[in-house]
Amino acid sequence: MIAAEKPDNEEARLSALRRYGVLDTPAEAAFDELAELASQICETPIALVSLVDAERQWFKARVGLDATETHRDLAFCSHAILEEGVFEIPDAHNDERFADNPLVTDAPHIRFYAGVPLITADGHRLGTLCVIDRAVRRLTPLQTQTLLVLGRQVITQLELRATVSQLASLSDAERAARQRAELASAAKSEFLANMSHEIRTPMNAIIGMTGLLLDTNLDAVQRGFTEVVRGSGESLLALINDILDFSKIEAGELQIERAPMRISDCVENSVDVLSVAAAQKNLELTFRIDPSVPDGIYGDATRVQQVLVNLLTNAVKFTAAGEVAIDVRAERCALPTGDEGHRILFSVSDTGIGIKPEAIAGIFDAFSQAERSTTRRFGGTGLGLTICRRLSEAMGGSVSVESQHGRGSTFRFSIVGAEANLPKAEYLDGHLDALGGLRVVAVDDNQTNREIIEHHLRSWGMTPIVIDSAAEALRRIDSGELRFDCALLDMNMPGMNGIELATALSARPRVAAAPRIMLTSLGQGEQQPHLKLFSAFLTKPIKPSRLFNTLVSVSKPEKTQAEASKADSSPPPAEFAELGHTRILLAEDNLNNQKVACLSLERLGFRADVVSTGLEAVDAVRRSAYDIVLMDMHMPELDGLDATRRIRGDSSSHQPYIIAVTANATIADREACIEAGMNAYISKPYRLRDLRRVLVAYNRLRAELEESRGAEATAAGAVDLARLLDPSALEELLELLGDDPAELGGFIDQFLPGISELLDELRIAAQAGDVAAAHRAAHTLKSNCATLGAAELRSLAAAIEESTAEGSLAPVTSQIQTLAAAHQRYLAALREHCEARGWPLAGAEPAR
Known about the structure:
Elements: H1 10-19, H2 29-42, E1 46-52, E2 56-63, E3 69-71, H3 77-80, E4 87-89, H4 102-105, E5 112-119, E6 125-133, H5 141-168, H6 172-214, H7 220-240, H8 245-251, E7 259-262, H9 263-280, E8 284-289, E9 296-299, H10 301-317, E10 323-334, E11 340-350, H11 357-360, H12 372-378, H13 384-394, E12 399-404, E13 408-417, H14 432-435, E14 439-443, H15 447-459, E15 463-467, H16 470-478, E16 486-490, H17 498-506, E17 516-521, E18 536-540, H18 544-555, H19 557-568, E19 584-587, H20 591-603, E20 608-611, H21 614-623, E21 628-632, H22 640-649, E22 657-662, H23 667-676, E23 680-683, H24 688-709, H25 715-722, H26 727-736, H27 741-768, H28 771-788, H29 791-805, H30 810-837
Parallel strand pairs: 8-10, 14-15, 14-16, 16-17, 17-18, 19-20, 19-21, 21-22, 22-23
Antiparallel strand pairs: 1-2, 1-6, 2-3, 4-5, 5-6, 7-9, 10-11, 11-13, 12-13
């Protein structure tokens, strides 16, 4: 017999075990039922919930065994707690560790053993849930999976038991104080949510109108300014949610998304927000993304931009002269799932006031700033860096700072994520050959700018020549050693600025004809008397896409202008040609939002009737047969949810396709819309791409119904089909995955098994009488079904979640077969839907 070694963290493990206060306590039904269930499912005469103490294993629950404990050196469980997953011994007689063990040679005559370690949230292994037989055997895959699930339920019961014990020990005064704190927290959250909604309303109009403005024929400078306004507005709109972040973080309610995101977009959007402030202080604002950084990863773009904007804001605020630079790199790393991913490393450096050494240690603490005078001089609450740290940690990374007082600081943060296959940047498609071999000279006194420009030009196959001063450029031209096809000239340089250098170049016949591009800080604008000296103007910080497109433009201007003219005169989308007579009702109380929505719909070839309240929307649907209703969630008299419920509850009314429109954009909001009877969901502000997406989904659904039911199919039929499958959810996924059907198919294939596993967990929880486990499984199932558009299955899961929240398992027991049937119907509809569009899909197999 070979006794098991003790874990490296034995003292901490024993301390964790004793904290639960469960050793030598009487039997409890919750644990006994889990042991009984393990015995029945694994078909073994013996099952134990075993806790490994310092010198013994003690049984909290036992089936088929009279003993209450054994010596630790004899215990199979002492070996099992050292393993990952299920520790299985098919035949103890053939295992040298156990062949002469008294528990094998004598009663209870163990031949077969299988145990799963009971692991706490902080990684301590308290014991096992194990099954034992007196015959040689193995577990089936389903039995193995079930044993793992039941093991997790044992830990859940231990945590619940500890929580109940702790709550029972609270005094009445403590309970009252806690209740008051919870009510105050709820009131604060409600106030902040209402304030956030009020701020969003004017922001929606700003973003919507600038979006429409960008669809008009603007010159390069106007387009650049408008893009910055829109980009800044969108970033500010996202950051409005940050009003709630600190409260969410402290309450443990912060959610991090995992969706495909492009790192370069996050950086460029963040830089846009601070470009004006940097230009006003004559600071150089630059960014560089290393080639090691993947095009995209799965992460939370909004949160990444939030951290970047916060760090950039501080850098610009505390820097009086010099530069602020972003550097982004990547390294391979292992993800928590065990798969390989990327750690993205961001650094924000400045040449500002720096931080005193004694202040660095607490710089990321809440309500902390480098020194008291900082608040008076620069403002701020002191929460920004705390939120940055918490967000970085929530995204799997960390944050740090290096600083020299009086010389500047470098803040670093990281995130981790799996690589996402995103399409190549649109501006590179089909144009690389046009610039190959082009000789471009860049004259800029800032070394970081020169390095960034040289990197981009070289990556596009051009020949870069970087020079640090106008005088040196002229010297090399006059000596005959410098020739070029295009020149990038910085506006602000010591000695001779960009305009003066351009004037000098135009007077030199050898280089006078080469196009010249001015690099200016935002807000300087084009120098009207000197327009003829330049072919184009670029504002700093230099975006790769704008630099590339400008170089294409000046090298082949006639082609670019023709393409621009063609784009400006493009007709409304052909995809909506069949919807020419579609009747649309817009229910929106804000006049600015009404205007944005109507103009956006007109660009797509539609007109809409407008109402301002929920009651007016209900009356309008009763009077007229509208095909589509764009329903704002927050309106006076009757909100969008209640208005939709009234419309769906009126069997005499024509049933339209209802699209929810709201400033809130959480999973819970989407679920509330679907539960109320809405068919699709978009968030404010009204964007053409979002309207196009939901109208495309409606058009496809309408076409499917006409094909399957005949030309007289109605929108009411669309509602019925939408209760089985929500195409708009799949369209959203496709858009998130870069409009790549192969990527969508792979995502669905990976996601579908999770739904089957959750249905299994519901069955097991129902059999075990475990209300808490059923509630968790139903909640997760509801969320996953919403993601994959499994509308009917999601509704059933929502009903079970609601019932189990009230302590009832009756719906789970009665609806197991209903869930299985709904699962089969969804898989069939999903496969048919994907095949009709040519989307590759392998995983939609019949439900178990």
